[in-house]
Amino acid sequence: MREKTKLVLGSAGSRVEDAITLDINTEHKPDVVHDLNITPLPFKDGQFKEIVCHHVLEHLKDLSSIMSELYRICNGAGTIYIEVPHHTSWCANTPEHKLRFNYFAFDGYVDGGITQWMRQTEKFRYLRREITFHRAFRRAFLHKLFNRFPLNYERFWTYMFPAEHLKVWLRPLKTESEK
Question: Which pTM was predicted?
Answer without folding.
Answer: 0.91
